[in-house]
Amino acid sequence: xxxxxxxxxxxxxxxxxxxxxxxxxxxxxxxxxxxxxxxxxxxxxxxxxxxxxxxxxxxxxxxxxxxxxxxxxxxxxxxxxxxxxxxxxxxxxxxxxxxxxxxxxxxxxxxxxxxxxxxxxxxxxxxxxxxxxxxxxxxxxxxxxxxxxxxxxxxxxxxxxxxxxxxxxxxxxxxxxxxxxxxxxxxxxxxxxxxxxxxxxxxxxxxxxxxxxxxxxxxxxxxxxxxxxxxxxxxxxxxxxxxxxxxxxxxxxxxxxxxxxxxxxxxxxxxxxxxxxxxxxxxxxxxxxxxxxxxxxxxxxxxxxxxxxxxx
Length: 312
Ligand SMILES: [Fe+2]
Description:
- The structure is a single chain.
- This protein is α+β, with helices and mostly antiparallel strands and 312 residues long.
- The chain has one domain (8-116, 151-310): Roll (2,3-Dihydroxybiphenyl 1,2-Dioxygenase, domain 1), CATH 3.10.180.10.
- The protein contains 5 helices and 20 strands.
- The protein has helices at 19-29, 74-84, 165-176, 232-244, 294-298, and strands at residues 8-16, 32-33, 42-46, 55-59, 63-70, 88-90, 98-103, 109-114, 152-161, 179-187, 190-197, 205-206, 210-213, 221-229, 248-256, 262-267, 273-278, 282-283, 290-293, 300-302.
- A 10-stranded mixed sheet has the order 19-10-11-13-9-14-17-16-15-20.
- β3 and β4 (55-59) form a beta hairpin.
- It is globular, with a radius of gyration of 19 Å.
- The mean pLDDT is 96.
């Protein structure tokens, strides 16, 4: 039994030396300014969903600071605090509510929020149905995607490099109730990582919310954060927009095996990898864990091969 079961990931937190530049990049990436900006030395950006922010940045040398899970209640935060010795604090960030701040075994900041006041959703790009060879729901209507950035809806998952996979896995599972979707096998009985999802019971949830990977170098750190966009047209619109402004692309567009999502990876101005994705697999708590090979992580169903920069 885990201490609590988290509902989802909510945000990532970075330190960067130029908040204006960060805001411009994230706007081009498809986010919008959060409705409140309570601190001039911090920047909060939201998606089109109800989360008050999905990306937080504070002034300083470039660094990954933390990521946040969303818990279902403030009572759950009290349980976490009792288990870990951390404090439940009132949050002065957009959405308010309460927050517990923890460190994982590698020292990554892990925050858990509850009691957020949700924001009104922002409109997505106008969505008209996709036709295919089997089903043609769009009839007597034209599709025009327009030009411009993608529309980020929410933070979907985060990948961390960890120095000891089993130690990190145990920490995250025992506190937050994560379930393994795919465990990555380097050989028989040699596990080097896992794609894990939230335990939402019968409610379908993303194939991976947090993935842990132990690299051959043993180095721990931020790998990437992935934001869900409206759909495939939205992702490609955003791709063309980021290309047009000269953003640094890292990998894509392609379709992964594990999670099956269509992906497009970019680097922010300080080199942090941010992903656009759409059309991923959804599982319930009844779906059994699988074992997957490293090849299934590296290979694509279609699209360009993974560049060396992604693995180390
Ligand atoms: Fe990803």
